[in-house]
Amino acid sequence: MPHRVPGAPHEGRADYLSGRPIRYYRPRGGADVRRLIEEGFQAFNAARLGEACRIFTDKMLLPEHDTTIGLTVAGALTPAGLGGCIVELMKRGLVDFVISTGANLYHDLHYALNLTLHRGSPFVNDVELYEEGVIRIYDVLFPATVLLETDAYVREFLVRWGVNTPVSTAELHYALGRDLLERQPGCQEYSVVAAAAAFGVPIYTSSPGDSSIGMNIAFHELMNESGLMIDPNRDVNEVCAFILAGKKNGCVILGGGSPKNFYLQGQPTLWEVYGIPKGGNDYFIQITTDSEVWGGLSGATPAEAVSWGKVNPGVLPDTVVAYCDSTIAFPLFCEYVVGSDHGHRPRKELVHKRDELVATLKREAGAATRKRPAPQDPANTMLDRERHR
Questions:
Q1: What angle in degrees, to the nearest 10, is found between the helix axes of 232-245 and 169-183?
Q2: Is 278 known to be catalytic?
Q3: Hey, which CATH number is domain 31-119+143-362, 3.40.190.10, 3.90.79.10, 3.30.1360.130, 3.40.910.10?
Q4: Catalytic one among 91, 260, 310, 348?
Q5: What global pTM score does this model have?
């Protein structure tokens, strides 16, 4: 087979794109789902999912707790249509900031730009897909032109934005979302990036170069001699500043990977590096298919996280891992939450408070540094040990 670009002119042999379009699913708080979770999910991982729902609604969302809630997103969730669940949570003030893979944000842009992804099958001939110019994400199928049109939009946005300095990923995604809102009115109803900008929710990407958004930023820098750069230091400090400012802190982790650890490292950054003993997260909910026995689990269990200062040791009853597929468990979780008595909160709109909160972090870190004892010379330490033998 001669090499050619996917999507180049060809003789069509099969209609792989005949499946129904994938739409963003928006939870409505169905009473039947709440009844299923309360009465039917009684043991094993069904019970763990029910426990996660109740920790979120009965504790994390209580007004007197004023919990700052971070959502981390790994895996191909936006191509599967689950971005609508995230949009609903942000709109209702139930998520204060998001840490996602860049791929989830890139594929979210397809929906904002009215480009269509289709339901399909994982049991297809990928050589034929290549010849037909069709891209596959497991059972999600779409034409390669979707990528090319999305890439073109990102590059044109970067030129319009005109920024030539280092930025945090939250600043980049906020500007991208505002651009979408201006050019695609109403798209906050079916785009995570646009909704985050509309509702003041900062979105971070822990590995910005590992996505097509990052690839197009690299193109922009090289071809336009731009000074635009993603500064990971800003991301680290902004997330730490949110955690420091939180009366209580909690997370909902979908999958694991880099987004999970990027959120959880905030607490060790505060105590280990900045000398500020915040005390660990108060709530921890994870939905994952990974297993701790292989030594992974993307940052380990809540119990192990205690040893790192990531989770407050006094709150282990308020932590849970549901070993489920996020594409099954997360919509159920969101239906339960949206239909609860605490299904709305005032939005914190942290995207507009980043500079202020980072300034507070800097002041407190400076005060902690001045109190920190001077480091000992390792040679002197060894001599002291010899003397006390």
A1: 90
A2: no
A3: 3.40.910.10
A4: 310
A5: 0.91
